[in-house]
Amino acid sequence: MKRGENQMKFLKIPIDKPLTHVSSGHFVSPINWSHSKRNIDSFVLIVGLQGTAYIQQDKEKYEVKPGNVLILLPYTTHFGYEISKESVSYYWCHFYCKNSSIVDESTFTKELFVPKIEASIHNDCNYVMVPIYSSYTNTDRINILFNQLLHVAYSDYYTSYGASYLLTLIMMELTQQTISDHIQKLKDDETNGKFIKMLEWIRINIENNISVCDIAREFNYNPDYLSRMFKQKIGISLIKYINSLKITKAKKMLLCSDNSIKEIAYKLGFTDEKYFMKLFKKMENITPTQYRNAFFYTHMNNH
DNA sequence: TCGCCATAGGCGATTCGTTG
DNA sequence: CAACGAATCGCCTATGGCGA
């Protein structure tokens, strides 16, 4: 990203509980319309369907066209900065949520690659990350979900949570599409493409006890340079990344096989099972055996 | 942007002891 | 015997500084 260019901002919301749906609808404007000026206490999700709405939030100007999704933040002034000559239509939804935060693009990218590590540190860290403003190519699913939301919100549904869960699902869909687009964009870029190939290579060769030097040699990086670049891009060191991959794999093997701890350690490229146990305890706070005993029965029939 | 050097701290191997 | 922890120690990695 170039300096000075507007950094993409993302709204990050934990979804261990659903967002709170307040109201929603399908807005169709008259001709020569612009959004009234207001400052409210809830979030607003806007999904463009037809025409162009010109909405300004604080100092930022947005054009909401079909395929665009804009999130208006609570307690920020927003208004139409230009009159739409043709008719405009969009879906809208007012909602509340707890513990939301605004993150920038580099944070988004980092969390893309290390969700497992994040989750293990914070125990339960499931969230959606939706750009404040973005365009989507696959609008069908979003529109279908929004239709369902409106249906549930306006019918005599047996619980108002229905709309909240559907709204949460819409946010998950937006997150999913954003992630897919983002990964594709990274792959298209040459240096990032090489980097993603490297991550794949690490994933495939994780059982071969690979070192930083091995990776550097394979991809023609200077080991020192690779160390820095990796930390800068991903946010954790290369060795920590490799170890977290191994432990993630170990957890699966503990639950889905009856290999001994020693066998699992060897399969993961550890030459010493003692060290494997040490590392596992450090990252998961329990020993491999405790992990297996605690979760074995609940996963027995997972195929 | 990339590579080299120095170095502190962490990694990984080894040994030994304990428990069930 | 399998699983795990503690202590120890050499080596590797991360990182700041410097320079091409």
TrEMBL record:
Q: Which residues form a coiled coil?
A: none
- Keywords linked to the UniProt accession: DNA-binding, Transcription, Transcription regulation
Please give the organism: Caldicoprobacter faecalis
InterPro entries in UniProt: AraC-bd, Homeodomain-like_sf, HTH-like, HTH_AraC, HTH_AraC-typ_CS, Tscrpt_reg_AraC-type_HTH
Specify the protein name: Transcriptional regulator, AraC family
One matching Pfam family = AraC_binding
Q: Which GO terms describe its molecular function?
A: DNA-binding transcription factor activity; sequence-specific DNA binding
Q: Which PANTHER family match?
A: ARAC-FAMILY TRANSCRIPTIONAL REGULATOR (PTHR43280), HTH-TYPE TRANSCRIPTIONAL REGULATOR EXSA (PTHR43280:SF2)
- Domain HTH araC/xylS-type per the UniProt entry, residue ranges: 196-294
Record carries keyword GTP-binding = no
